[in-house]
Amino acid sequence: MNNKKNAGEYFGSLVFNESTMRDYIPGTSLKIWQECVKTHSVLPEKIAADIADGMKRWALEQGATHYTHWFQPLTGETAEKHEGFLIPSGRDGFRMEFSSKELIQGEPDASSFPSGGLRSTFEARGYSAWDPTSYAFIKDKVLCIPTVFCSYSGEVLDKKTPLLRSGEALNRQAVRVLRLLGDNETESVTTNVGAEQEYFLLRKEQFMQREDLRLCGRTLFGADAPKKQELDDHYYGQIKPEVTAFMQDLNDELWKLGICAKTEHNEVAPAQYEMAPFFTTANLANDQNQLTMEIMKRVAEKHDLVCLLSEKPFAGINGSGKHVNWSVSTDKGENLFSPGKTPAENTRFLLFLAAFLKGVDEYYELLRSAAAYAGNDNRLGGQEAPPAIISVFIGSELEKVVDSIIHEKAYDGGEDASLAIGRDVLLHIGRDNTDRNRTSPLAFTGNKFEFRMVGSSQSIASPVAYLNTIMAQELKEVADELETADDPKEALMGLIRRMLSEHRRIVFNGNGYDEAWVEEAARRGLKNLKNTAQTVPEYASEKNIRLLTENGIYSRKEIESRNEIRVEKYCSVITIEARTLDQMIRRGIFGAVNAYLASLTQNFYYEKQLYEEVGQLGNDLYAAVGRLEKYLGELEGAGAAERLAICSDRLTAAMKDCRAVVDKLETLIDSRFWPYPTYTELLFAI
Ligand code: ADP
Ligand code: MG
Questions:
Q1: Is 236 near ligand 1, meaning CB less than 6 Å away?
Q2: What is the pLDDT of residue 421?
Q3: Residues 138 and 269 in one domain
Q4: CA 434 – ligand 2 centroid, Å
Q5: Does 125 lie in the same domain as 45?
Q6: Which of 100, 110, 293, 615 has its CA 20 to 30 A from that of 389?
Q7: Per-residue pLDDT tens digits for 333-360
């Protein structure tokens, strides 16, 4: 630990970032690298050799012994395979080797990564290629080189490649639009992302006593603790010393890796916390979030705790999300979602806002799909998570502006707010105070959008890639239209008005938890895609395939394979959960019921009553677990569509039935007989 040092002295010490590169790479080579990164062009071999050499010297000085191509397969996790620097040399000697070839390309045997039929096992080789736009870093004495991962025939097998491609698509189209707006300065446009990470901390000792936590990362049953989160005493509450120690250690580790962990606090549910880093460019933010999740788990272990990242570890209290803050800015540092201070900036803002709203309205099924998987199904649509219906919160002030544009009326939103519909627009939009509305899945918060539907354990790569792609598509349409207009400036206001009018329905500032919203959304024609299964046909729709292929993100085959992987993964998760629950009931709960019943002498009236009640619940459970096993049996030999139906309807319902009985039993049976830690024990232990 570096507690005695000032954080500034070790921040980024394990990262081969630009300032470190300056010390290890010849100046001319560094310049060429910077230029290549900026213009997305290919790095000359000679420069790569200089970088490899510098990287090796630096890594060895830091005590690294191995290197790895660090990539992000479709599991949503990260993968690594270590290679030693050491090779024999001469009779008894050795040398440390690492060349540009090893830096640039690797060949992990990748037969066991999901590919959705894109690559058969007999052509197992995929290759990983260095992503020079992210930084190499050291983890456990291993030099980790961020890479993309493809099959030999060039199909994308990872989460990073589409993210990079979407960034390029957005850059291309945004610069086009800016040129049409008269901006000749901006050379490139990038997305910035800050991913707030929620998590739970449990005591390791208790975690180990529950197979559901160990195998599924969440509890499959558990009666409500007498106290939940109703006192609001945890949220932003004083942080307990044990948790503070964890957070300090976590910050140290993250800072060493150059991750600017900034905010930390208690979250709403008991035992729930949040860490938010300072935002950075999308690609780096994605790498950093992957690392953050890994480091959180490791640091927790060191403290005899377990960090749970799953979306809904406990029923009845808040689940965990990952609020993805997303914005678009120019290389001159201008945020394109910032309302701005001049009429020109305002117009640009309104255009980008209108394009975003139109994009979300047209492709909300894709965004919904990006956050749809088994774990998040337990969270979305609950009373405390964003609803499963996508809408955009823009705040009341901005809503007034939007409506005044649509209805061609003057805007009188505030003292110095004025809006003249016509050639120039001037408005002052302050940060809306109502952005505290936490019920929206996608909220405008002053100069960025916050995508709150994303689940706590998932990779942010796809959600961000789809936001980028949708925006790229809309800006492309804007540019196409303005390029052919006689008077682009005149056409612009009309275009903004049309986009806003046609897509007004996606704006919703009200309470997303309200039942009335479900009905209202249906009236507006917005689909309520309640679970993963319902997103499966939507994800690979012709509309989305067109969007993703035309913007160069995926081929049709890649989209379809990704959907297959989504279904497979969903079914695997549900099946594992069902099997785990089955085992816990058969081997734990029935034993507890029997022992408890045997302990009752039945000499007293109350004992007789309890005997009856618990005995009856035992019978109910026996029937419910029988159904669970029957559906598990039906999975054998079923095709993909049938498996999806079994998992998403029958198995899920059977698990719910079992749970209801088990939870009742838990409240009746003498605690000495109950084999698993309860919610009170799990949630109020620290
Ligand atoms: P909260 O949502 O808790 O009120 P903020 O909205 O201020 O907190 O910030 C949350 C996250 O948003 C942080 O990770 C922060 O770095 C990030 N963020 C702030 N500004 C931007 C921006 N322009 N683009 C992307 N992310 C941003
Ligand atoms: Mg926020």
A1: no
A2: 38
A3: no
A4: 13
A5: yes
A6: 293
A7: 999 999 888 777 889 999 999 999 999 9
